[in-house]
């Protein structure tokens, strides 16, 4: 008997099962966002076939998504929703009490637990769709849930993996497949930890601490996913440009991840920045902190080598280190890349090249905000999100929600003329 193997089918199974994508995010009572905003990157079968859309389960997901709007409209606040979820899952290892100031604000929350801050993100890993939601009342966590959805024999099943809910009387209810007092965790150790105060910390981070004891692989996969997601803001609280991507790049070189290091170097060289390479030293200053020492641009002028400190480079040059490293890191790890103020300091020709790079890197999902509205003509109406503020409240809507709009329209000209809204009234 001859065995035929369809390698195309095998590749498709591997490719889609290992693709990691964000499907949507819901935001309520978060900074300037009062009413629930559902931001979906899913598109239906009516959207034309293109490599910029990818499959996840039975859904098509946009790999490139752009947020535009006037200054102060709330684009950064939408980006902060991704950042807060990332921080909560991967950051708090210690007990968070009600007196701690969490990294979010709400302008509209009333003194009523029914009026909570609510975030919900839907994502897929290994051909399973997950919904993760958290609710906060000021600094108090009042709900955390994780639900999975998978397909077996043409049928979809949903499972609550865990649920933690704090009632108005401060009673804690814990349930789900991996509930703390459940059959998987039998000795009660985790139950004592949780009821002792770790309710305020993300359950996923607690699982990581006890992974060697309980070995719940599904949680570890999800936690690893969020740890690798690249979510960045451009400026530090001091207003200075963030040098961490440059530091990370040299740490990768020291850790023998020279493949990524060389890719970044080659792309930067191709952007005609005027230098052939770069080099420098990273100093470990303790407690997981590093600082750049002697970061240099290397120029080759008629066979003579010149080394110039990168401190004298323009913000645009340093920003390219920031952008390219983050994008290629995401490609290599097959995780989304989320960048606020993506275009600042960059020439449009370079922005075009980066967008073209996203189009061909099938493992990448890029979610960005920008004020360079020429980008709008590089994407479809299903990939463009308009951010507008009315009565101090941020609203987000996808361009295809506007009737009688075609993909062949000049989105840039229509937008700057005010046809779509989401501009400053000056």
Write a concise synopsis of the structure shown.
The protein is α+β, with helices and mostly antiparallel strands.
Q: Quick one: how many beta strands? A: 19
Q: Assign a percent range to the helix content.
A: 25-40%
Indicate the mean pLDDT: 77
Distance between the termini: 76 Å
- What is the number of helical segments per DSSP (H or I, 4+ residues)? 11
Describe the global form.
globular
Largest sheet: 7 strands, antiparallel
What is the topology, as strand order, of the major beta sheet? 2-1-7-8-9-10-11
Poorly predicted runs of 5 or more residues: 1-16, 180-199, 234-242
Strand % is 25-35%
Query: N-to-C SSE series?
Result: HEEEEEEHEEEEEHHHHEHHEEEHEHEEEH
Radius of gyration: 23 Å
Q: Structural class of the helices, strands and pairings?
A: alpha+beta
Key descriptive features of the protein:
6-stranded mixed β-sheet; disordered N terminus; 28% helix; 7-stranded antiparallel β-sheet; alpha+beta; 426 residues; 11 helices; globular; 30% strand
Question: How would you portray this structure in words?
Answer:
The chain has helices at 7-17, 75-90, 189-195, 203-209, 211-214, 217-228, 244-254, 258-270, 315-333, 348-360, 411-416, and strands at residues 21-28, 37-40, 42-43, 53-56, 59-62, 64-69, 117-125, 128-137, 140-152, 155-166, 172-175, 230-232, 277-286, 289-301, 304-309, 337-339, 366-369, 384-390, 393-398. The protein has eleven helices and 19 strands. The protein is globular. The chain has 426 residues and is of the alpha+beta class. It is 28% helix and 30% strand.
């Amino acid at each position: 008997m001859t065995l035929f193997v369809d390698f195309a089918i095998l590749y498709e199974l591997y490719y889609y099962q290992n693709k990691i994508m964000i499907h949507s995010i819901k935001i309520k009572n978060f900074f300037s966002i009062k009413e629930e905003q559902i931001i979906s990157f899913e598109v239906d079968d009516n959207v034309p076939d293109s490599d910029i859309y990818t499959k996840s389960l039975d859904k098509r997901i946009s790999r490139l998504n752009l947020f535009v709007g006037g200054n102060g409209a709330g684009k950064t606040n939408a980006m902060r929703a991704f950042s807060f979820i990332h921080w909560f899952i991967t950051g708090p290892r210690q007990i968070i009490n009600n007196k701690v100031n969490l990294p979010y604000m709400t302008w509209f929350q009333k003194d009523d637990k029914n009026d909570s801050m609510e975030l919900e993100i839907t994502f897929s890993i290994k051909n399973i769709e997950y919904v993760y939601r958290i609710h906060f009342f000021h600094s108090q966590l009042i709900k955390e849930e994780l639900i999975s959805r998978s397909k077996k024999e043409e049928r979809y099943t949903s499972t609550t993996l865990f649920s933690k809910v704090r009632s108005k009387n401060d009673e804690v209810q814990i349930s789900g497949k991996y509930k703390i007092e459940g059959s998987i965790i039998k000795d009660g150790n985790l139950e004592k930890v949780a009821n002792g105060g770790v309710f305020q910390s993300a359950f996923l981070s607690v699982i990581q601490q006890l992974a060697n004891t309980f070995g719940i692989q599904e949680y570890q996969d999800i936690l690893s996913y969020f740890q690798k997601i690249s979510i960045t803001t451009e400026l530090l609280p001091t207003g200075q440009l963030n040098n961490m991507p440059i530091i990370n790049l040299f740490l990768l070189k020291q850790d023998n991840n020279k493949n990524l290091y060389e890719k970044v170097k080659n792309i930067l060289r191709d952007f005609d920045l005027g230098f052939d390479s770069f080099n420098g030293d990273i100093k470990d200053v303790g407690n997981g902190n590093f600082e750049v020492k002697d970061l240099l641009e290397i120029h080759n002028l008629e066979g003579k080598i010149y080394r110039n400190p990168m401190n004298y480079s323009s913000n645009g040059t340093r920003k390219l280190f920031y952008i390219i490293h983050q994008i290629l890191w995401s490609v290599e790890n097959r995780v989304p890349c989320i960048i606020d103020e993506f275009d600042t300091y960059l020439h449009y020709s370079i922005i075009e090249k980066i967008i073209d790079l996203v189009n061909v890197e099938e493992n990448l999902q890029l979610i960005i905000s920008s004020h360079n509205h020429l980008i709008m003509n590089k994407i479809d109406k299903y990939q463009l999100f308009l951010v507008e503020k009315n009565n101090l409240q941020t609203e987000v809507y996808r361009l295809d929600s506007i009737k009688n709009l075609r993909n062949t329209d000049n989105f840039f000209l229509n937008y700057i003329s005010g046809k779509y809204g989401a501009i400053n009234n000056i």
